[in-house]
Amino acid sequence: MKKLLSFFFIVVFVFNVDAQKLPNIVILATGGTIAGSAETNVQSGYTSGQVGVEILINAVPQLKDIANVTGEQISNIGSQNMSDVVWLKLAKRINELLAQDDVDGIVVTHGTDTMEETAYFLNLVVKSKKPVVLTCSMRPSTALSADGPLNIYNAVAVAGNKDSWGRGVMVVTNDRIHSGREVVKTSTTAVETFMSPLVGSLGTVNYGTINFVDLPHKVNTSETEFNVDNLSSLPRVDVIAIYEDAPGDLIKAAVDLGAKGIVTSGLGNGNLTDACIEALKYARSKGVVVVRSSRVLTGTTGRNIELDDDALGFVASLELIPSKARVLLRLALLQTSDPVKIQEYYNKY
Ligand code: ASP
Prior knowledge:
Elements: H1 2-21, E1 24-31, H2 53-58, E2 68-77, H3 84-98, E3 105-109, H4 115-125, E4 132-135, H5 148-159, E5 169-173, E6 176-179, E7 184-185, E8 194-195, E9 203-206, E10 209-212, E11 237-241, H6 249-256, E12 261-266, H7 274-285, E13 289-294, H8 309-312, E14 315-316, H9 322-332, H10 339-348
Helix pairs in contact: 4-9, 6-7
The structure holds aspartic acid.
């Protein structure tokens, strides 16, 4: 009997030690299609941000085998309505949680529309080497073959893995692990929508099995000088589309409405119509920082290619597409409005 009892205690002890060894992951839900619902499971129309974080977690009971998961609702919105208020709340909560010894990693569920911006923002303002992983879905939670549950499972696996430490903020979707800096939504409807067109993904994750093949290419998270702890707003930066015969009046309007920075979604290597160049000179005369980017999805927008950036006082976005160039400019403007210093940020981040 004694022997049987001690065997029982050993089994209970080993079982408990195993449960304790599982990583503690907090899921912060913000909304999106992953929390969306539709009236039938075969329709394309639906409403984002309907389902709460507990329902998302309970839909994936397999999570308890790989992590101790808890959830918090940060917002429940379609990410087309992502805002500075939610960004700052999310970033501050992530930093608070990651400072705790009993939190090993964070998963953020998010809509796909602005995920490339949120991921890059967090990549610049999270102050920890612990993993932060964003995930999403293209199909609402009620759809046939919903892609959310496996994405959540894979995201928790990546957030709970020691090899994920120090890789910056990541996006896990459709079996791929992307750097938050590189990832871009490339299809309006396909499940295989997120890509890292310039440098490729950081790795893959299949039913929780992770294969990293790369490290982030630029400085991120705890190594950056950006800190949102005491911040309640971000400077206004507008993105202006450039196209055949584009006039300059929208640029002038942005300046007159109080923009502190303008990012141009330019042609080819960030080119601009003459009318837009004149309007951007007006912007410079008012102290507004001008960053040239490109509507072309991949490649580098370089300095002084067909335009004299040095003489015009413009900044080149280099590898950053307009949506990401805008994120960096908003943070850079918190430190300086000197275009030479801001160009250094684009070289570095
Ligand atoms: N509009 C949705 C959102 O960004 C789309 C999605 O999540 O796929 O929240």
